[in-house]
């Protein structure tokens, strides 16, 4: 469910039905309609994401700025009763500097994704690796399950094998 658009009552109802509630938020992009937009300094906001109005890439190299912002998002999830998190847009390094504004590499992405997972776990919550399956082997120890979108369409489902082989769920 969406971290911001889902109420405490809705989450509570789902949990009463025995469901595990995973709360979605974008960790790799700034969305200009979210209530915490004032927390993002302009220095971390990059180019607009193609095809997503009001959404802009974040400079994930700036861990000291983004880390507390993402932790606050997760703390909101704790308050709302989320069992875990589905941070989106955590494959930014696969995009070009022309697309994002940042010269990102695998090392930057791994540091950011580990920070997100460590933060979720420090709060006692589950965390999903989303659409970053080419780093699945490396990130497997940090993540509890994976979420992939359109892996069949792009012939990428085999990239989730490390999770499956480790007995961790993969949701398409």
UniProtKB/TrEMBL annotation:
The record's section on InterPro entries has: Aldolase_TIM (IPR013785), GH (IPR017853), GH114_TIM-barrel (IPR004352)
Catalysis performed (reactions): Hydrolysis of terminal, non-reducing alpha-D-galactose residues in alpha-D-galactosides, including galactose oligosaccharides, galactomannans and galactolipids
E.C. number, please? 3.2.1.22
- Asked if the keyword Chloroplast belongs to this entry, the reply reads no
Q: Recorded GO terms, molecular function?
A: alpha-galactosidase activity
Task: Say if the entry is tagged with keyword Hydrolase.
Answer: yes
Q: What is this protein called?
A: alpha-galactosidase
Q: Which organism is it from?
A: Gonapodya prolifera (strain JEL478) (Monoblepharis prolifera)
């Amino acid at each position: 469910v969406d971290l911001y658009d889902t109420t405490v009552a809705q989450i509570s109802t789902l949990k009463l039905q025995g469901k595990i509630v995973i709360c979605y938020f974008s960790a790799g992009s700034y969305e200009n309609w979210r209530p915490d937009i004032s927390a993002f300094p302009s220095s971390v906001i990059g180019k607009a994401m193609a095809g997503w109005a009001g959404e802009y890439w974040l400079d994930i190299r700036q861990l000291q700025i983004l880390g507390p912002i993402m932790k606050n998002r997760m703390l909101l999830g704790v308050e709302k009763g989320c069992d875990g998190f589905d941070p989106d847009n955590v494959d930014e390094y696969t995009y070009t500097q022309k697309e994002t504004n940042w010269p990102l590499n695998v090392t930057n992405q791994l540091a950011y994704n580990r920070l997100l997972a460590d933060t979720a776990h420090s709060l006692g919550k589950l965390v999903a690796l989303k659409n970053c399956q080419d780093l699945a082997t490396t990130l497997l120890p940090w993540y509890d399950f994976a979420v992939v979108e359109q892996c069949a369409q792009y012939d990428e489902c085999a990239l989730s094998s490390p999770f499956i082989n480790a007995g961790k769920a993969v949701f398409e």
